[in-house]
Amino acid sequence: MAYSAKIGPSILSSDLSCLGSECVRMMDCGADYLHLDVMDGHFVPNLTFGHPMVECLRKSVGQDPFFDMHMMVSRPEQWVKPMAAAGANQYTFHIESTTNPGNLIKEIRESGMKVGLALKPGTTVEELAPWANQIDMALVMTVEPGFGGQKFMEDMMSKVSWLRSQFPSLDIEVDGGVGPDTIHKCAEAGANMIVSGSAVVGSDDPRSVIALLRTVVAEAIQKRSLDR
Fold first, then answer.
1. Looking at residue 148, what is its pLDDT?
2. Which of 23, 51, 175, 192 has a CA-to-CA distance to 185 between 20 and 30 Å?
3. pLDDT tens-digit profile of 143-200?
4. Rounded to two decimals, what is the model's pTM?
C-alpha cells in the first residue's frame, strides 16, 4: 500500500489579489500540496488563470510546494509544455476533454510532470479504468466542475470505492464540497488526496482543519491495511 494522506487546499478559494502569500500561508498551515484550478471558459463556464500566473507563483513561493494543476480546459494537449515550463508538478486533465488519453499521458510524462486523470460526476468510472495503470492519480469530482461552494455529491463515493478496490495503490483525489462534514465519507470510500477550498482557506484556523482532514484519512488508510 503505497499511498498516504495528503491535503491540498484549492487556492482559487483564497484572496486572489495576494495569491503568493496565500500559497505560503497554506503551506505554513501544513498543506501537503496546492491544487490550482485552470478553467478556460469552454470546458467549464468559468474562467480563471493560465501558465503565466503559475510561473509567477512558482517564482514567488520557491520550488517546494507541489502544484497539482486541475486542467478544466477543452484542449488539454495545448497547455502541457507551457505548464511544465511554468513549474507545474502534476497535470490533471479530464477524460471527457480528449479523444486520445494515451497520447496525452505520454506527453505529460515526457514533459517531466506527474499525470492525473479526472472524471466529471456524469462520467462512469469504467471510462478511466483502461488508463489507471498509466497514471499517478485519479480525480473523482464530487461537484460539477467550474464553480466553488457546491454541495458535496455523496453518490460519487461508489466511484472512489471501486477505484480503491481495483487499483489498491493508486492515489485517489476528491474535489468539491469536501470539508470536516464530508471527509469521513471520502476517507471510508478510499480517497487519500483531499482537495478542500473554502473549508480550509476560508477557515479562521486552517491549520486545525488541515490536521483534522489528514487524521481522518490516515486513520482510514490504517484501518484498511489492518482489514486486508
1. 67
2. 23
3. 999 876 789 999 999 999 999 999 999 999 999 999 999 999 999 999 999 999 999 9
4. 0.97
Q: Rounded to the nearest 5°, which phi and psi values hold at 206?
A: -60, -35
Q: Are 118 and 93 in contact (CB under 8 A)?
A: yes
pLDDT, position 50? 96
Looking at the DSSP bridge assignments, the partners of residue 138 are 117, 172
Please identify every stretch of the chain with a pLDDT value under 50, giving residue numbers as ranges. none
CA angle 156, 142, 65 (to 5 degrees): 130
- Sheet containing 90-94, strands listed edge to edge, beginning at the edge strand earlier in sequence: 6-9, 193-196, 171-175, 137-141, 114-119, 90-94, 67-72, 34-39
**Separation in Å, CA 61 to CA 23, 31, 130, 157:** 7, 14, 36, 34
3-state secondary structure of 86: helix
Active site residues: 37, 175
Q: Would you state the pLDDT for residue 189?
A: 98
99's grid cell: 479523444
Cell numbers describing residue 189: 470510500
Query: Smallest Cα–Cα separation from 118: which of 45, 11, 43, 179?
Result: 43
Cell of 179: 470539508
